[in-house]
Amino acid sequence: MRLHRNLCFAVIDGLTLIFNEGKYADKVIQQLLKRDKRWGSRDRGFVAETVYDIVRWKRLYAEIAEVKEPYDRDNLWRMFAVWATLKGITLPDWKYFENTPTRKIKGRFDELSKVRKLRESIPDWIDEVGVKELGEAKWTKEIAMQNEKADVILRTNTLKITKEKLQNILADDGIETEFIKGYDAALKLVERANVFVTDAFKKGYFEVQDASSQLVADFLDVAPGMKVVDTCAGAGGKTLHIASLMENKGQIVAMDIYESKLKKLKVRARRNGAHNIDLKVIDSTKPIKKLYNKADRVLIDAPCSGLGVLRRNPDAKWKLEPEFLDNIRVTQQEVLQQYSRMVKEGGKLVYATCSVLPSENQDQVKAFLKSEGGTNFELVKDKKILAHQQGYDGFYMALMERKA
Ligand SMILES: C[S@@+](CC[C@H](N)C(=O)[O-])C[C@H]1O[C@@H](n2cnc3c(N)ncnc32)[C@H](O)[C@@H]1O
């Protein structure tokens, strides 16, 4: 691979914003990719993947390069040189790479890789939490998998098209996909591609959604005609899936505390041809109380640490803080207590997270079922998905039923 100066500059600029100004990697990359209209898909891929790679391996690369935060541009070039050297890329004779100690880099990589938190490039505290909650052996495998690049998975919008037809249409655009056994609506890309520019996407034939995430709406056991409340709908990944399973019949109330997220859901719902979704911002307890005992199904896709989806959000490793984890556990119990009251007698409730930590998952459900608010509910089943076991994102989902 030959390095191009303007692409490498874009990478360094992006890293400055992410590491030194606390900006989110996905947003920074979106901006960077608008920088030069002449960049082709390979150039854009290089910028996006290199930024993500260096964000993912920040701690390891910084240790190898012997640089400390806040990183100046020289520090970032040194980390870049580590990335390139470990990838086997020959460094051009630019001033930034003068005196790069290639052999020393490889030696330090071998030496530092003996220590898990350095090899896997994670903060000490996340490594400690992982070991405490999953045990040494499981955590070692899980965090290694969480550092792998994630496959791109599509969810067919069955309101508009079948999986088979979608596969053919994408193939005509040169995008090869495979079915995944056990995931009814999923198509996995054989090679990475920018699917958002396809006609099929613009027509609402699919959404990009990880395979594990696609299991949640199935778990909720919805049917056309039901009244379903999606309490933490965000931009609506699961809401849209629920809508397609309900064949546009019945009602979905999609709620969130952020109006901005629900606005994105509105745009996506229009593209998907999903017409049975009512949006409600939670700005007081009023919209919740109005729905007490009314819903056939309630989904609580709870806010969480995101420690199941680091493959997609590697910068969460550096943004997450122990206090956030403590606070989010409190919120998780609160939303379970409050939103479960919307389930009517005989109705069902799903609590889900994209975390692999038991303290955010089964422990929350156990605490809820033991509490006064949970006495009318019983656990039907739950699923603990670890990325290293399934090959997809780490997730948790529990199905509970309110006794009649
Ligand atoms: C895991 S995300 C939801 C992802 C979304 N369901 C999807 O499939 O794309 C959790 C969501 O909960 C929202 N949230 C946080 N606290 C909340 C609360 N107290 N009540 C309702 N929603 C909340 C966040 O804004 C966020 O959108």
From TrEMBL:
It comes from the Bacteria. GO terms for biological process: methylation. Residues 142-403 form the SAM-dependent MTase RsmB/NOP-type domain. Keywords: Methyltransferase, RNA-binding, S-adenosyl-L-methionine, Transferase. PROSITE patterns: SAM_MT_RSMB_NOP. Pfam families: Methyltr_RsmB-F (PF01189), RsmF-B_ferredox (PF22458). The keyword Acetylation does not apply. The keyword Methyltransferase applies. GO terms for molecular function: methyltransferase activity. CDD domains: AdoMet_MTases. The active site is at C354. PANTHER family: NOP2 YEAST -RELATED NOL1/NOP2/FMU SUN DOMAIN-CONTAINING, RIBOSOMAL RNA SMALL SUBUNIT METHYLTRANSFERASE B-RELATED. Belongs to the class I-like SAM-binding methyltransferase superfamily. RsmB/NOP family. This is Class I SAM-dependent methyltransferase.
